[in-house]
Structures are given as C-alpha cells and as structure tokens.
Design a protein that fits this description.
The chain has 447 residues and is an alpha/beta fold. Helix content is 33%, strand content 22%. It has a six-stranded parallel β-sheet, with helices on both faces. It has a five-stranded mixed beta barrel with strand order 15-16-17-19-18. Bound molecules: S-adenosyl-L-homocysteine (SAH), iron/sulfur cluster and FE3-S4 cluster. Residues 53-54, 170-171, 173, 208-209, 240, 242, 267, 269, 307, 309, 338, 340-341, 343 line the site of S-adenosyl-L-homocysteine.
Length: 447
C-alpha cells in the first residue's frame, strides 16, 4: 500500500463506448493526482467497468469484482469500485449483494469519483460506513470537457454522442445509458487535433447510433467530413450505424473522402420482418436489403459487418431460415451472433420465451458455420487486389511478420518486420487463411 493510496487499476467489460468511458475515468482521476497501474496487485483502488447487455456479461463482470476481493485480504485499505451499466441496472443492490464492493458509480456520475475516493482515504481500515452508490442519470452528461487518458498508440476512440433513444425491445442500453446527446462538432474536432499532435493516425467516432448525431448545426456526415480534414489523421472510422437512419449522404461522404474508411457495421438483428417488428427495429427485411444495395453501389470494396440475435421470443424455424437466407444474400464480411438474453426493464422481458437453451445454441452454431464460409469467400475475393494498409505492428502469431488493416478493417499479414507502425503502405494480397489475409509490400506511401 502506498502512503497516498492513489494508484488505480481499471478493468473494462462491454462495448467500445465502455472502453472509452474507462479512459474518461482515468482522465478524471489522473487530473486529481491518481496514477493508473496495469496490474491489480500494484493498485490501491480496483475498478471494474461493467456491461449489462446480456446476462452472461453481467455475471462475468460481477464475478470478477468478487474475485478481486482477494486483494483486500492481502492488503488492508484496498478499495473496490464497480462502474458502468450494471450499476444503473441494479442500483444499490450491488452493494448489498457483493460484500467486497465498496462503491458503485453509474455511467453519468464519474465526475464524483474523486470525492468518493477521498472519503474512503479518510476513513480508517475497513470502515464500511463510507460505502457509496452514485447515480446521476438524465443529467445530460457528455464529459465534453474531460480529456480521456489513453494508452499511447496509433488509434484512439472518441465518443461523439452518448445514450440511445431507440428502445429496441430486447435492449437494455437505453435504460442504462439514458437519452441521446451529442457533443459539439467543434469540441470533437479539437480533441482530434490534439490526438493528431500526439501521433494518433486513426480515430474511431463512437455512438450507440452515430447516424442520429446532431449538435444543432451538424449531422453525422458533416462531423465525419470535419474530422477527416484534420492533418495528421490518416483514417477515420465510426460505429455503430442503425439501418433506419443510414442516409445516402453518409454513404456518399464515406465514398468522397479517402480518409474515411469504407467499413460499415450495420446490425440487422434478424432477417424476418415479423421479428424485426416485434424487436421495434423500425425497418423491414426489404428496407435493410435496399440499404445494403445503396452502400455497395457507392462503396464497392466496403467491409460490411453486422450483429444478429438468435432465439428472440417467438422466433419460429421459418423466421430463423429467413435470417440464414439474409446472411447468404448479403454476404457480410463478418457477423457477431448472439443468443437472446432477456433483460430487465426492456419490453421484450415480458414476452414468453419460446425456445429452449439447447435450441438457441443450435441456431447460434448453425449461423456461425454459415457465416464462417461466407467470411472466407469474401476474403478470397481480395486475393490479387492491390490496396493500402496501415501498419499496426508485429503479427500476433509471428514476430517476424508485420500486420496491418485494410480500409475495410480486414487484417493483412506481411513478411516484413522493418515496417514501422503508423505507416501507410501499399500491398498486394496474395493469400487468405481463416479470417486473415496475407500480402506482400508493393510500395511505401508516406503521410
Ligand atoms: N447500438 C448498437 C448495439 C448495442 S448492443 C446497435 O444499435 O446496433 C450490441 C449488440 O448486442 C446488439 O446489436 C445486439 O445484437 C446484441 N444485443 C443487445 N441486447 C441483447 C440481448 N438482450 N440479448 C442478446 N443480444 C443482445
Ligand atoms: Fe440497443 Fe437498439 Fe439502441 Fe442499439 S439502437 S443500443 S440495439 S436500443
Ligand atoms: Fe454493455 Fe453498456 Fe456497452 S450495456 S454494450 S457496456 S453501453
């Protein structure tokens, strides 16, 4: 235990937005003189930033918070805090159910963390009277003025909006993250400028539904364009797009700007219009397919990825077959497929589940197998192509090789270690194995 008890460790579960939030928390604590450490045994404060999207996500994150309790036994005075979406979902019950947890702070209340930690520092030993729960939801918080403390690298995430107003029937996010609010474009651009000056070359703009970004003056394509204009930034990515709001203006903006990556994550959730209606997704199968046509018309080499839920209440064999046929028709480059998990507060929580766990697992496996073949086929289509990659570093499998990503987010491995991370180079794709492409260097393109 250090004398000032100001070392914190943070572990993050859930989506990219949550990872960004952990950087916000590190930014808030860093300003107050706390130091981030990357091993729990070195820390005085252990933070677990949690996700509620599926039950399994909650179980994992809370299990980890319980396990971290061993550090309290080893070093008296160590504090454990739970952050994130579970706090909004379960409220003070977290403190009742998890004796190792000293404080719980919901996503809109992170500015209060230094105050909570001060109270704990002043309290002696294992004084539980300072256990705290904080939830300032609906405050309109955007952390707009907080500069996140990021681990230095080539890429950075920037949340451009928070919350979600869509209330898809299965989804807890609008209930735990509150209403949509956008940060002013000028502030986002300022953050991007600062990042570029620090050596970041790739930024990903984040929101639960970036297409509904609106700061009163700019829509999302306007914002993308402004970010892409910043010198030093070589690539701009974004996620996630809701199909109902994906506009032709957005697709054209991506097509018109070399720096805006031709990768669109467009969660479809189901291929059955009937299920989509019950899910409250506000589009039909046909409307979704039209959006895909629009995207591919303007962005022929687009990387198109999606999310799917299998086993939603009432999903019949015929509904499931429609999802399978949609996968085959669209040929996504990748798909994240999830088993439906009923969530509290959501409207679908009131629907009777009609499939057994075994049936859900079987559907999940079947779709994963279908998608695997499609992903391989899509990757093979790149063989022979010449394209640009951003070099990220050595390949995970072999330090002798370098790896980078194509604009469409696919990984390319190159037999060359001398390539510097952060460089854009032109490669010829020569082979494809599993989800990885292999290539050879054709030319350097310096920024
Ligand atoms: N904002 C994003 C996704 C947020 S959650 C969007 O609108 O697309 C990420 C994914 O988790 C969703 O796309 C959905 O496929 C899945 N998901 C959300 N709630 C779920 C639930 N209750 N059970 C299973 N999967 C779920
Ligand atoms: Fe959840 Fe739907 Fe909002 Fe995405 S758009 S976060 S799936 S409610
Ligand atoms: Fe999970 Fe919260 Fe993200 S529920 S998916 S961490 S917004």
């Amino acid at each position: 235990m250090t004398a000032d008890r100001k070392k914190f460790y943070i572990e993050t579960y859930g989506c990219q937005m949550n990872k960004y939030d952990s950087e916000i928390v590190a930014g808030i604590l860093g300003k107050e003189g706390y130091t981030q450490v990357f091993r729990p045994e070195e820390a005085d404060i252990l933070l677990v930033n949690t996700c509620s999207v599926r039950e399994h996500a909650e179980t994992r994150a809370l299990g980890r918070a319980d396990n971290l309790g061993v550090f309290k036994h080893k070093t008296p005075g160590v504090r454990i805090g739970v952050l994130g979406c579970i706090v909004q979902n379960r409220g003070e019950k977290i403190l009742e159910d998890h004796s190792a947890v000293d404080f719980a702070v919901a996503p809109d209340s992170y500015r209060q963390l230094p105050k909570i930690l001060n109270n704990h520092r002043e309290a002696s030993g294992d004084d539980f009277s300072v256990r705290a729960f904080l939830d300032e939801s609906d405050s309109g918080e955007t952390y707009d003025d907080v500069y996140p403390a990021r681990v230095k690298g080539l890429s950075a995430w920037i949340a451009v909006m928070r919350g979600c107003d869509n209330f898809c029937a299965y989804c807890i996010v609008p209930h735990v993250r509150g209403r949509e609010r956008s940060r002013p474009a000028a502030h986002v651009v300022e953050e991007v400028r600062k990042l570029a000056d620090e050596g970041v070359v790739e930024v990903t703009l984040l929101g639960q539904n970036v297409n509904s970004y609106d700061d009163g003056t700019h829509d999302f394509p306007d914002l993308l364009e402004k970010v892409a204009e910043q010198n030093g930034i070589g690539r701009v990515r974004f996620a996630t797009s809701h199909p109902k709001d994906l506009s032709e203006k957005l697709v054209r903006t991506v097509a018109d700007h070399e720096k805006i990556c031709s990768h669109i994550h467009l969660p479809v959730q189901s291929g059955s219009t009937r299920i989509l209606r019950v899910m409250n997704r506000a589009y039909t199968r046909e409307a979704y397919l039209e959006r895909v046509d629009l995207i591919r018309k303007h962005l022929p080499n687009v990387g198109l990825t999606t999310d799917i839920i299998v086993g939603f209440p009432g999903e019949t064999q015929s509904d499931f077959e429609q999802t399978k046929s949609l996968l085959r028709e669209v040929e996504f480059d990748g798909a994240f497929i999830f088993k439906y998990s009923p969530r509290p507060h959501t409207s679908a929580a009131g629907l009777k589940e009609t499939l057994t766990e075994g049936e859900k697992i079987a559907r999940l496996q079947e779709l994963n197998a279908v998608q695997k073949t499609i992903t391989q086929k899509r990757n093979q289509m790149h063989i022979g192509r010449t394209a640009q990659i951003l070099v990220e570093g050595p390949s995970k499998k072999s330090l002798k090789d370098a790896m980078g990503r194509l604009e469409n987010n696919k990984i390319v491995v190159l037999p060359d270690t001398k390539l510097q991370p952060g460089k854009f180079v032109t490669v010829k794709i020569t082979d494809s194995k599993g989800i990885t492409l292999f290539g050879e260097l054709v030319d350097f393109k310096f920024q």
